[in-house]
Amino acid sequence: MSLATLPKWVAEHYEEKGPVIWLAFFLEACAAVVLFALMALTCMDVIGRYFFDNAVDGAVELTEIGLAVIVFAQMPIVTWRGGHVVVDILDSYISHKLMRVLGLLSALLMSGGLYFLAERMFYLGERSMRRGVVTEYLEIPVGYIVQYIAVMSYATAALMITYGVYRIIIETRD
Question: How many CA atoms lie within 13 A of 92 on its CB side?
């Protein structure tokens, strides 16, 4: 695939519109690269451990960081697509209008919660950088990872509020 055909491929394989389509593509590409790197790291760690009696130093740290990158890269995308688990036990007993109001309320509450979580995480990341907190073996600064989590939580909060409002407006028109 050439760079000239990339926009066409993305448009065919992603349902999002506007700038969110490129955000989704970029975040999924980052998550895929990190997942591949984790797979290669795990293979090298196992091969080194069993055949050469020498595991990869810091493999646990890199795996933890990689998992954080993957989870928080996917969180905004899952949120925008409405891919969260929903329990709809009371849906048949509640009016459609009340369902829309509750959906908007839940979108506001979730985005507010994510916003305040991101605020706290950003503060903790700054504090970790000021104090020079690093991982045990590889001495990777922890503050950058925590701030990455905060930025992805901000993005998820913004996408949750826009998705919630978008969904309510679209459902209102139907």
Answer: 1
